[in-house]
Amino acid sequence: MDKLATLSCSEQNEKLNREELLKLEEHIPQWNVIELQKLERDFEFENFQKAIDFINEIAQIANYENHHPEIKLHGWNKIKVTLTTHKVSGLTKNDFILAAKINELED
Question: Rounded to whole angstroms, how far apart are CA atoms 53 and 56?
Answer without folding.
Answer: 5
